[in-house]
Hints:
The radius of gyration is 31 Å and the shape is elongated. It has about 325 residues and is α/β, with parallel strands linked by helices. It has helices at about 5-30, 35-45, 55-85, 90-105, 115-130, 140-150, 165-170, 185-195, 210-220, 225-240, 240-250, 275-280, 280-285, 320-330, and strands at about 110-115, 135, 155, 175-180, 200-205, 225, 260-265, 285-295, 295-300, 310-320. About 55% of the residues lie in helices and about 15% in strands. α8 (about 185-195) runs parallel beside α9. The longest helix has 30 residues, at about 55-85. β4, α8 and β5 form a beta-alpha-beta unit.
Amino acid sequence: MEAHEKIVLGILLIISIIVLETIVLSLTEHWDLFTSFYTAVVTISTVGYGDYTPKTFLGKLSVIIYIFAGVGAVAYTLSNVASFIIEGHFKKYFRMKKMRDKLKKMRDHYIICGFGRLGRIVAYELEKNNIDYVVIDKDLEKLREECEKNKNFVYIHGDATQDEILEKAKIKEAKGLITVVGSDAENVFITLSAKKLNPKIYVVAKADAPSTLDKLIKAGADRAVCPYTVGGMEIARLAINPETIEFIHSLVASEEDMEIRRFVIKNKELDGKSIKDSKIREKTGATILVVIKDGKTISSPPPELKLNVGDIIYAFGTKEQLEKLKKYIE
């Protein structure tokens, strides 16, 4: 139980004891409710004016029991208040409240299930791109440790395979879900749950075993990735073509922050125009790498290729160039 919950429990206990003693004194001593309440408050506060004292046996007995119970309840509450302040719970409480308030306002965010090595990298990449996200993990200490370091970190402690935990992460308002927990079975289960709660959510799932990739796709994942396979292929490419791969890496990680993004053409003015006539390169500075038209992928599209509303394009450029492109074609 959290410190602030213990404080609330202690306060409720004190109020209950005072109300109970007020009723007992009213019945045994035949005092009005206010006098009984006044005596109960004076007694539990250890002020003891002595202007009202019980005369009956039952009244005196109730006061004896009341003193022990009341002093115990007050001591319990005050010790938790001191702990709340001294141990930094006060600061932690408001940080948690701020985090919950931020989660309530989230829309089109991403949910990261699992905060291991992969989950951390995913979270850092999303934060670098100013994308809202919430992390779900079973390891509370790990989450709290990250929260201490990162003020923007939002998390939910729990099991992501449970629907109520996904609902706490506002899955129905989320844009995407990335599941990178340790078990392939859990990743499949999380994918199934996510798609059941929000059929439109974009799910990317991790698979440790290559044989799980097909299961994740069947479970509803939009993309399934085996990090070991991808890592092995990357290592092989670096060994075979080191200059080419290093050039691509240096370009993507350059100071200009080069990226590749996916866009859908929505601007009706571009419908039927060729890439050359659309002047995308001149107006935005971005370079079109791939055009997907009617399900057909066209790599390195020629300038004469006509664009149509609904076509998917993959473009390469700086963040600024890609933002211009987005405004132009969408």
